[in-house]
């Protein structure tokens, strides 16, 4: 004879199941989607090899800080661009150790050629040696290609577009944490950010984004942005007021980036004179070098830029969309609460020293304390010669803070 459960028993079990299912203590934690897609080892280096290479390089870095052997990987990871999921790429260097280690994300400066992307560097390249040397001192080193290079080369690089740049960095950091876990590297959850020129801008953009929305289980300790042109409106005023500017491709790069990102088809025609309006779309092809792009432009601002724009950009409603794009991507509307060390060469006229000075002043005026935000001038250094002393000092500071 088949026994039928009583209504009372059914009700009891139903209520019990409902209470258990609805209990906060028994709810599984939300699933965090993985972002790492693939990792491929590029090379391995011993600590001794790295010490020797750094000593030969002449850098002011104590070789004794390099303790660990390092594996360097080319990685792909998921990120978002204008609301759509895409796959981006970068380089991650992992120290081979059971000790707990920190992480540093290093943002590269302005590049236009696909062969200059970090993930395009082959085994033995000096760039990979530098990343491995940093990793050997006790850091997981993350180097995003940035959207527009490597795996995402079908997208035009969003040059000086705050949101897109910051998101690619944040997701590469997440991918690095996943790779470290997969390789049994113990990450202590302490993150640093560093970068020079566009990399300085990208570093500050990522710092701002992480303060606004922290990365789960990762604590930003400090950032080190350098020579970044953070105030794009001020950069525009500076360049427009020059009779000659030695790097006109910077201006064309920003304009082409904003034209495509904001889908403003008439931006180049509003900005430049012919024949430059017609030339610019074909110059940023991922093959032509920055020097050769400059040759196709003019370093005379009166010849390159439309006179009406130079005179009326700040006031004419016709150009409001350009003003708004510059304002939206200028990093002067916030107040960092996590330590930031800003660097800039005092003789820099490519990205003018004054741009960092006024950005620093604006962030202080916004409420950041001078204890949190430090400004470090590099006396006698320009945009090129400021790089080495910046790198050397950042490595020392990270060793102290890690």
UniProtKB/TrEMBL annotation:
The UniProt record lists the keyword Signal: yes
Domain of life the protein comes from: Bacteria
GO biological process, one term: lipid catabolic process
InterPro entries: AB_hydrolase_fold, Lipase_secreted
The entry's keywords: Signal
GO MF term list: triacylglycerol lipase activity
Gene3D superfamilies in alphabetical order: 1.10.260.160, alpha/beta hydrolase
Extent of the signal sequence: 1-21
Stored PANTHER family: LIPASE 5 (PTHR34853:SF1), PTHR34853
The protein's name in its UniProt record: Prolyl oligopeptidase family serine peptidase
């Amino acid at each position: 004879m088949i026994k039928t459960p009583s209504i009372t028993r059914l009700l009891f079990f139903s209520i019990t199941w409902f209470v258990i299912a609805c209990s906060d203590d028994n709810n599984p934690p939300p699933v965090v989607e993985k972002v790492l897609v693939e990792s491929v080892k590029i090379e391995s280096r011993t600590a001794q090899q790295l010490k020797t290479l750094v000593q030969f390089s002449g850098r002011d870095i104590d070789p004794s800080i390099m303790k660990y052997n390092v594996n360097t990987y080319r990685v792909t990871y998921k990120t978002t661009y204008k609301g759509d999921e895409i796959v981006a790429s970068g380089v991650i260097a992992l120290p081979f150790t059971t000790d707990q280690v920190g992480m540093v994300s290093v943002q590269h400066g302005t590049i236009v050629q696909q062969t200059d992307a970090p993930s395009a560097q082959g085994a033995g390249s000096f760039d990979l040696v530098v990343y491995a040397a940093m990793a050997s001192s006790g850091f997981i080193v993350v180097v995003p290609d940035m959207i527009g290079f490597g795996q995402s080369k079908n997208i035009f690089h969003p040059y000086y577009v705050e949101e897109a740049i910051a998101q690619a960095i944040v997701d590469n950091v997440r991918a690095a944490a996943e790779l470290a876990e997969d390789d049994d590297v113990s990450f202590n959850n302490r993150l640093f950010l560093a970068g020079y020129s566009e990399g300085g801008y990208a570093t500050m953009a990522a710092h701002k984004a992480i303060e606004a929305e922290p990365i789960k289980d990762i604590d930003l300790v400090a950032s080190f942005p350098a020579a970044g042109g953070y105030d794009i409106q001020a950069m525009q005023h500076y360049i427009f007021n020059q009779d000659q500017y030695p790097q006109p491709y910077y201006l064309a790069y920003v304009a082409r980036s904003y034209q495509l990102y904001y889908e403003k088809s008439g931006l180049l025609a509003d900005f430049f004179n012919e024949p430059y309006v017609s030339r610019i779309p074909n110059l940023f092809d991922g093959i032509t070098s920055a020097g050769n792009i400059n040759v196709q432009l003019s370093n005379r601002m009166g010849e390159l830029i439309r006179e009406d724009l130079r005179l009326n950009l700040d006031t004419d409603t016709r150009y409001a969309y350009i003003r708004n794009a510059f304002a939206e991507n200028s990093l002067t509307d916030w107040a960092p609460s996590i330590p930031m060390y800003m660097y800039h060469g005092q003789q820099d006229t490519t990205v003018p020293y004054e741009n960092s000075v006024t950005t620093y002043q604006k962030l202080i005026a916004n409420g950041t304390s001078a204890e949190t935000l430090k400004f470090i001038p590099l006396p006698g250094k320009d945009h090129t010669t400021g790089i080495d002393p910046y790198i050397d000092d950042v490595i020392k500071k990270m060793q102290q803070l890690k």
